[in-house]
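Allow me, if you will, to draw on your knowledge of protein folds for a short while. I have a record of one protein: its chain in single-letter code and its fold written as discrete structure tokens. Could you please explain, in whatever detail you think fit, how the structure tokens follow from the sequence? The record follows directly beneath this note:
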Amino acid sequence: MTDSIIYALDFDGVICDSALETALTGWKAAATIWNGMAETAPPELVEQFRAVRPIIETGYEAILVIRLLYAGETTESIYAGYGEKAQALMADAGLTVEGLKQLFGDTRDQWIAEDKAGWIAVNPLFAGMAEKLNRLGSNHDWYVVTTKQERFVKKILNANDIELAADRIFGLDRNMSKPEVLKGLQRSHPGRPIYFVEDRLPSLQNVRKHSELAELRLGFALWGYNLPQDKTQAEAEGCWPIHLEDFLEGDAGFGRA
């Protein structure tokens, strides 16, 4: 595989449709901070969460988004002022980012310990993705580049019979930005083309700020957690919008694998 393409894939929104699990974990965690929240998240609030999911970069933010929705914020009001609302909520409750990350991971761990099958069930891979990744692995080197904690990525991949070495999963645990991870992959695989597939436009825009990464091919996963208007902007900024069926078939300029 010395001359083959390197695929760097985001996880949530590209490989795994984790919106439901993220919402439910966010609710469980939020209920330990704020009294009065029922044990089970209302279905209508979970649906609202899915609409707001594109704004979330890292899983722990689900705790804040769930609480904002529970407090009566609309999806529109959250989009209009998410940063300020999240900061105010954290300040009011005396929360820190590191504390929320820890709580979110611990809440997942407890759920898995109590009901691993149930947790896996609400973390489905997108249809056809498992077959694609197993096929990809026979022709190319591929990596996961995510803000998710690595142990959860491993559990979901293993549950879907997908083998990926631990050193090919770059997650939250490493305290590295996605551009830093991608630069490392460039150094590890000099001269080989790298295709980065991501569903969040801001993440792709952040990669484009780094001149060292100018040679990367950036794929914008339209099946993930993004907004319709993001497609036009992605194209205008040199990213390649990809439909799921094209990615699964290996078309859209991302190699047949």
